[in-house]
Specification:
By secondary structure, this protein is mainly β. 0% of the residues lie in helices and 47% in strands. It has no helices and 8 strands. Strands 1-2-3-4-5-6-7-8 form an 8-stranded antiparallel beta barrel. A hairpin with a 7-residue loop joins strand 2 and strand 3. The radius of gyration is 15 Å and the shape is globular. The protein binds ligand B9F.
């Protein structure tokens, strides 16, 4: 099987787009995230992401995590997942996320974290 590479442009099942820049020798990467959904869609802005991939070059289907700092709200999301190559040779990122909302009082902490899953596929599939 070919190697799954994080660098590039991706779209998820919600229609959100993200771009991941080069992964460095430590596995660190940065990028940008354009969410397709928000409570007030008119306020959406492309937001920065920072991530880390496990053991660069050691694994053909690497695990990774990244943080998105939503610059149009006071919330933060973290994603973790694995980069797979499916049976048709297409790269797929299977992820889970936590979205932390900012609440005004510690008594509201219980309702401040949302959880979900997202599946990303490459926007412009690369040839062999
Ligand atoms: O809409 C979110 C937000 C947080 C506080 C006010 C607005 C920020 C964008 C989150 C995008 C999530 C989804 N997009 C995606 O691609 S991150 C996980 C999902 N995957 C609305 C009001 C309170 C919480 C959400 Fe808010």
């Amino acid at each position: 099987t070919r190697k799954c590479v994080l660098t590039g442009r991706w779209r998820n099942d919600l229609g959100s787009n993200m771009t991941i820049e080069a992964v460095d020798s430590k596995g660190d990467f940065s990028g940008s995230y354009h969410t397709a959904v928000a409570d007030y869609p008119s306020t959406i802005k492309v937001s920065p992401l920072q991530g880390s991939q496990h053991r660069t070059d050691q694994n053909r289907q690497p695990t990774f995590g990244f943080t998105v700092n939503w610059n149009f709200s006071d919330s933060v999301s973290v994603f973790t997942g694995q980069c797979f190559v499916d049976e048709k040779g297409r790269e797929v990122l299977k992820t889970m996320w936590l979205l932390r909302l900012c609440v005004g009082n510690i008594t509201d902490d219980w309702k401040a974290t949302r959880v979900g899953t997202n599946v990303f596929t490459r926007l412009q599939p690369q040839k062999e």
